[in-house]
Fold these 2 entries.
Entry 1:
Amino acid sequence: MSTKILFSSLLVCFFCLTKVQAQEVLTIEDAMKIALENNFEIKIAKNNTKISETNVTVGNAGMLPTATASVTDNNNIQNSSQTRQDGTSTSLKNAKNNSLSYGVSLGWTVFDGMKMFAKLDQLKELQKLGDSELKRTILIKIGQVNSAYYDLVQQQQQLAALDTTIVISNQRLTLAKNRFSIGKASKLEVLNAQVDLNSDQVALLRQKESYANAKILLNQYLARDSRINFKVTDLVTVDNKLILNDLVDLAQKQNPALEAQVINKRIAELQLKQVKADRYPIVRLTSGYNFNESESSLGFTSATSSRGLNYGFNATLNIFDGFNQHRNEKVAKLQIENSQIAIEQQNMVLNTQLSTAFQTYLTNLELIGLEENNEAIAKQNLEITLDKFKIGTITTIDFRTAQLNYVNAKVRYSNAQYQAKLSEIALKELAGNMNF
């Protein structure tokens, strides 16, 4: 009978394989590649990084001169009268007065207490912060893709286990009907076998629904049509060689959340430099070339014009501003202190997360071994029980118990692998060491 079960199971697997051959076989490497190209949040983070990169210019830091062109044209029509000192007077209705001026002016701040250099450095740090945010987004999304992918793998394994259960339940129903037809079993045994088969079919249908929904979720992470059908690989490979100390060292260097806090402290320090720069004078060079022209219908001069170059400099120094300079520096120093506290807090949180995740990882690795052994025992027990059921030495309840034990053992073994994989993903994400 065990040979028949094996043959039937292989037959079911053959038809399933024939059906899925037309489907895309999506590997985890392909899934990560698609996510990196298509995921919306990753695209937004990439654009934000480009914005930060675009902002890093000497002009944005205020190091370059500015040039402006201007044109002013004024016209008016008035009824005017004039009385001279010799007592004579003159008047004119609708007197026209016109003035036109245009030119180019140049301004250049040549010294501002080194604020412009601190500003440029701050823009560079903001670019690094954008890069860190992009890395954090990628790690989170790749972690989600990995979790969703291996969830599909375990659900696919559970579907295979339920398919095997259906095969066994069908054989049990056939045996019960044969025994009933020759008078060795009651109608109750046939009905129980039919009820259990129906229950197994319901469980299979629910599992298919869960599997289909998991596919839709993965397609969402990949930012592609939710109706795309595909098949995942059948194996869950868990890296069982992770070492906590190595992960902690990597996290100190690569964890994007910790990296962001370190950058924020550097930004706060540069902000203090800019605030302190306000204690120094600001020196600005000015220059320009202007043309002026005016016409008047009434007066001693009917028209004037001038053109030429002007140049000079101005310097300003803040002598007293109501102690705002002192207040601003104090606030900037407190921001630096807060940044240091945030680094220490992030370090503690990171070490705690790594320690707890690693303990879960070790437990899950042990569970894989236990559940693998349980599955082998449950399979052997089912084979023996099936042989005994055939000759009528055990009850249908005992047979059903052995059958469910086998299915549950397969499901637990699959889930143990999945949970261990989730622990591995979580640890590598914290360490900033996901392979993508």
Entry 2:
Amino acid sequence: MTADDRDFLLFVGSADSEAATTRLRASGAIYRKKLLSSNPSNWAGIARLIASPRNLGTLMVLTGADYARICSENYQQVAVGLLDALIGRPHLIFVHENVFLTDEQRRAQESEDVDRASLVDVTPRFDHEDYFGITKDDYFGEIPEDLREQVNSMLRSRGLNVTPYRTNVERSIIASGFIEDHERHLLFRLYVPSGRLYAQEAETLLGLFREWLGQTGRRGVRQEGYNTTAGQVFEFFSAEGAPEGGLTRYFQDFSAFLDSCMSSPDTAIAQLTITGVGESAAATMVSRFATQARRLTLDLKQRREERLLSLKHQFENILLEIGDVQDDDLEVLLDALLPPAVAQAIVPGQAATSLAPMTVNNYQPQFVNQVAGTVLQSVAGTVHLGPEAHQLLELIATFGGDERGELSTAVHELEDDGARGGDRIVARGRLKRFLADLGNRGLGVGLNVLQKYVEHKVGVS
């Protein structure tokens, strides 16, 4: 078999850090490198490599010179083809902050009160080797605002995975994490705060989900993760890569199977036999899953009742000051705000992220808003987070779109000192890009405090 017949990872620009290539060489993996400081025909060739079925993933670094090429007349057509080739394929694009962020955004995230002694990389890293032969101005020169906005808009409109970075150390850590997750076929990573409603039941449900995957012919899926004092991280990997249609379909099918186990066991048995499970084994599995599902349903119901009672006690003193309000009315309000005690409430991406405004009897709107805000924090497990983290979560709930789950997990990882260092650095980059995109869309009011918070939450400079 020739090199052309083997799978490979693609590095574009200076993305091939020593840590990343060493890891690939140690595992015997093939990688290729292409430069963007080349003619348009080479860019077209890079686009073909990105789209190749042999390409397992692409890591790319865009410099200020690359931004200029993308918008130039000679490169514009091939640049569009290159960016389009990345859509829907595993990739990670690095852009230095001096290129990606506006002057205002860079000033906003600076702080005079940084404890430099706590930072990991406190020595200057700006020498000639850092530029890989590219001039310093390509990285740190002035980028015209209209050029920056045009390219950033092209990246944003395609939903590309862009990470702004400050140092090569930071970029190398993120690239190595990307390669490791890709080599192990990460399906999803979920952070569950210890105070989140139904947090204790999440492990049980995901364990059932993993077993169901194995019994229905998806034996390559494995579950890993770790605990911290503030929460638990769940990770699912697959030997076969991401399933067609994503994990959402798997969760939907699994939820329907659990319902069938309890309400229509014959239907559940038939579903299993279709996948190749013997009828006797299928009947045993359905019976066991039905028992565990009923146990889980009861646990969810009791957990919800415990949380409702705790919240009710929390607001009883306030009720005395309002007057003319019955305890039953408060229970109605809390019951409407708490998510139902069903398995879907703890499936990743299914938990409530916002609450609709409500009016209950004669309650003052201020009191209703106070109750709603407290319930939301209790449900999400964010009671002990600081104001900046809360504000970030609110922005994510409003503007996060399909990335809400990943961005919310990023906030919790950033807040948790016990989370893995590499994951926290990745989380910081993801949130910096999200905030920068909000600013570029004209939604940057008050973001300076959040940008400063995100920049200095992890000790890497």
